[in-house]
Each structure stands twice: as C-alpha cells, then as structure tokens.
Amino acid sequence: MTLSITLPNEGRTTSVYTLQQTERTYAKTASFSSRSAYSAAHVVADPLSASHPVLGGEVDWEATLSYRHSLWKLGFGVAEAMDTAQRGMGLTWETAKELIARSAKEAKAAGGAIASGAGTDHLDLSVSHSLDDIVRAYEEQFEFVEGQGSQVIFMASRALAKTAKHPSDYARVYGHMLSQVKDPVIVHWLGDMFDPNLAGYWGEQELDRAMDACLEVIHTNAAKIDGIKISLLDKEKEIEMRRKLPESVGMYTGDDFNYPELIAGDEQGYSHALLGIFDAIAPAAANALEAFDQGDLDTYDQIMNPTVPLARHIFEAPTYAYKTGIVFMAYVNGYQNHFRMIGGAEGARSAVHLAKLFQLADRAGLLLNPELAVSRMAHVLEGAGLQQEVLKS
Fold first, then answer.
1. Is 8 within the bounds of a domain?
2. Which domain holds residue 338?
3. Whole-number mean pLDDT of the chain?
4. pTM of model > 0.90
5. Closest CA to 335 of 387, 260, 281
6. Could you tell me if 238 and 315 lie in one domain?
7. What is the pLDDT of residue 393?
8. Total number of domains in the chain
9. What pLDDT was estimated at residue 53?
10. Domain match, 231 and 358 both
11. Does residue 262 surpass a pLDDT of 90?
C-alpha cells in the first residue's frame, strides 16, 4: 500500500509527499556490548491535567516509564532527568526526583542500566549564590540520586556558571564533589548551544582553554570518573579531548551531528554514547550497534548514516528546541497518544519544520508504523490549519 500526505513547505506552499516506507524496518529488541550506549529520554506530559503547561504541567508516569522499558529492551541504558527530559526547561527538581526514583525502580526490575542527572537546578538564579551554596546544592542532588541506586551524571550548573570567576572555582567545586561520590560518575559538559546560561563554562570563554581546564579536573580526579559526555557539536574537539583523557576515563559522545563516526572511532580510540537523538532513532541505532558488534561495519553505516540528516534537522538552531522534535517522533511512532509537552514546548517548532522532520524520518526508515505515522502527521497539520485526506493506493 502506498501512503501520501500533503505537507507544507517554506514560502507557504504545499506538496504531496509519498512515503518510501510501507512497513516497520527495525526489530523491537536488540543486544550489543562493544560500546556503552545511553539514550537520554524524554518525559510524556499528562495532556488532561488541569495544571498550566507553561508552569510545568504534569507527567504521565505510565507512558513515561513504558517508553523507558522500550529503550532497555533495545539494549540502551537510560540517561534520566537530563536536558532531553526538559530538565530546567519545564521539569523541576521536585518532579525530577520522582522521575529518577520511579525510573531507578523500573531499571532494577528490568535489569536495565540507568544514570541520572544531579545538578543545582533547585537554586533560585534570581539571587546570588556562593560556591559553598552551590556545593551544598550539588550534595543534596548527588545524595538523592545515589540513594535511588542510580549512577550519577554530574550535570553542568547554571548557578556555577554565574558565580565562578576562574577555572580554580570549578576545580574546587568538582574536586569536592568527586571526593565524596560512592561510585565513578559521568561528567557532563553541556555547551551553550543547548543552554545559553552555560556560556563560559569551566571559567573560560575560549573553547581550547575551557577544555584544558576540564581536562585538569578529570586528570586530578580520574579514579572517581567513569567518563565525560561532551555536548559541543564539534567532532574535532571531541576527538582531540578523547585522546587526552586518562586511560581509565571514557568519552561519551554527546554530538548529535556526528555520532556514527565518533562511535565507530579510529585507530586511536572511540567514543561511547550518551545521546538525546537516540530517543528519536532508538530501534535503528540499536540494530546498527548490534551489527557493529558482529563486525558488520557496512550494515552499521547503512543504518546509521541516513539518520544523520534527521538528527541535524532536529537539533538545528535554536538547538535547545530539539526536544519538540524528539517528542514529535515519539508521538508519530505510537509511544504516546498525543503531541503535548510539559512547559507547552510542543509549539517550539513550526509546522514546516515538523513536516521536513517527518520526511527525513521516513527516508531513514524510522517510522515504526507508517500508516499510523501518516495519520498522526495529518492530525498535527490540521492543528495548523492544513485540512486534508490521507491518500492510500
């Protein structure tokens, strides 16, 4: 059966798009071991809650946890309560605590890996905070995450970026926290393209100097660090940093533009993965990693490479709006029955952007049920005033 739909284009024009996919492309389960791979996971909003979405709204816990089980079945670990879950952009620390506690319990029952974000986002940024205040805030969240049985992801701090004046301030805070952790953590360096409040992180505006400051913290505290995830969307900087890490510390790519090459690696090393884009491409990525385990690099490339145009589109500027595309993919693929988001963030991307996303997902074989996907794309477009009938032949 051929499926067609009328989609909007730039310039207020429309065109009929005929899907390339007619059936599901990838399996629902997978297993791989040559790379550690975590998917940062989105949260599903409760669309019938009376809470105001712009004030955060409420979470549909059943649908949110069900999605995490789908990731574990595919072999991924879950990176919980991170930027992809709208942490600090709709998801408060109080709600994040419940999310982490629920997910950690489900991970234990499923035998799945989980690592959860611990930061300082409960601090009020409208007032000033001392470095000691920031340390205490980190201690509160680290203690909670460890208490749930989850590995800690040491999140970047907006409060620290605002307060710190020099790389030594970061060294003091990070050194203190790393000296206390029970088990090695994943450090997360989130670039300002994802969060403008983190500009100048590590006490340096220039990227090479910031990397040096970060590396000094890592080398000083290597025994307490499992790895570092960098989200800078700069392939060359990630490779450069990867080659400068202590042997015991891994690199987790956070590069949603260049992940296939970085995961595959080169003669001097490779990156593990902790990616937001995996939320949108999980079945394909899992099957690709499974092929990689078997030494089938051609299949790995054939699966992964077509997902890159989609990823680059989802994460285009303003990059922090990428969560809208992630949740849109979950909706058209049937993981949730609505396209609403906490914070009202479903409106952060245009109908034209979503229409192009839909086409790229189809071309990459990422629509799990093409007929359902077309129906739901039509529903989204009707909300934008584009009435139509889905054409089947």
1. yes
2. 1-24+306-393
3. 96
4. yes
5. 281
6. no
7. 65
8. 2
9. 87
10. no
11. yes
Q: Are residues 215 and 331 in the same domain?
A: no
Q: Based on the fold, state whether residues 131 and 237 are members of the same structural domain.
A: yes
Assigned domain for 105 exists:
yes
Per-residue pLDDT tens for 46-99? 999 999 888 888 999 999 999 999 999 999 999 999 999 999 999 999 999 999
Same domain for 123 and 38: yes
Q: Is position 287 within any domain?
A: no
Q: Are residues 176 and 239 in the same domain?
A: yes
Looking at the fold, whether 260 and 329 belong to one and the same domain comes out as no
